[in-house]
Amino acid sequence: MPELVLVTGGSGYIAGWAVVELLRRGYDVRTTVRSADREHTVTEAVSSEVDPAGRLSFAICDLTSDEGWDDALKGVDRVLHMASPLGLSSDGPDAMIAAARGGTLRVLRAATAAGVRRVVMTSAANAASPSSYATEGVTDETLWTDPEDPTLIPYRRSKTFAERAAWEFIESHDGPTELTTVLPGAVFGPVLTPDTTGSVGIVGRMVSGRMSGVPRIGLEVVDVRDLVDVHLRAMTSPAAAGERFLATGEFLWMADMARTLREGLGEHGRRVPTRQVPDVAIRLLARFRDPSLREITPALGRRNRHSTEKARILLDWQPRPARRTVLDCAESLIAHGAV
């Protein structure tokens, strides 16, 4: 019998690709969605890449509620916990932190009660970064972000608190369930559907011309397909038990991304902005006209990078070139009519 893998948040960008790849590799998959009306959307998206007939099932669960998690984990061999409650920052940073931490603990309690062999949790490279945005250099998984740093944006704090809570829970648990965490960078690549684009909206805004210029921000670009691959390696490798793995990719300034798109997309790249917006202009806009920019201003000019040597050595993981990922992302958005 094929192993049954639970993927949390099946309607999400990364989780959708995880469902696809698990089915390709012969696993049965159960995925959580917050409401039954999302089941058709997920099935349709997955079907664009692989036939899910008879091997994909659903569980109705919400990370902010205890209801349904025990049933969702029944008979499950392994878990990819990829869901994270986003869009809650309007309720204040404490609400986002509580939701991320509480959701992680709900999944782990149900998983350990069901005797799941291993849980692989998607954290973020921002949970293993120097607190100071001014810091340069290369860091690895031994570093933990200080969640009490008052300069951190709510998302960084929530991911750090959630991963900390996961490790503390497993350390206090005496059962057979193992934990591994994967810490990705900026996730791009092709989309399954124009309705679930995750972080690739940045590329969409560039290609559509909705950005008049690019800020001086650098991203460690990882392809969604490579990110799913490292999750599956971490799910099965004996060497991955009890380990954190950074899964970042090549460092690109947004200006580099823009040039790649402008040069690689031909006629479709004509609206991509190549002008770099001065840091002072971004800060002024954030202060007086667009408060949403305040969360990115600390990252202006920041060059801190992460080492993926651990994933390369222990999991034999090799991500593809970042520029290829950026182009694949844009071409997929164009093909889906999303730009």
UniProtKB/TrEMBL annotation:
**Key words of the record:** Oxidoreductase
- Which PANTHER family does the record associate with it? NAD DEPENDENT EPIMERASE/DEHYDRATASE (PTHR10366), STEROL-4-ALPHA-CARBOXYLATE 3-DEHYDROGENASE, DECARBOXYLATING (PTHR10366:SF564)
Segment Disordered: which positions? 130-149
Q: What is this protein called?
A: NAD-dependent epimerase/dehydratase family protein
- Domain NAD-dependent epimerase/dehydratase as annotated: residue spans: 5-241
Species in which this protein is naturally found: Streptomyces spinosisporus
Which protein family is it in? Belongs to the NAD(P)-dependent epimerase/dehydratase family. Dihydroflavonol-4-reductase subfamily.
Pfam families associated with the record: Epimerase
**Highest taxon of source:** Bacteria
InterPro entries linked? Epimerase_deHydtase, NAD(P)-bd_dom_sf, NAD(P)_dehydrat-like
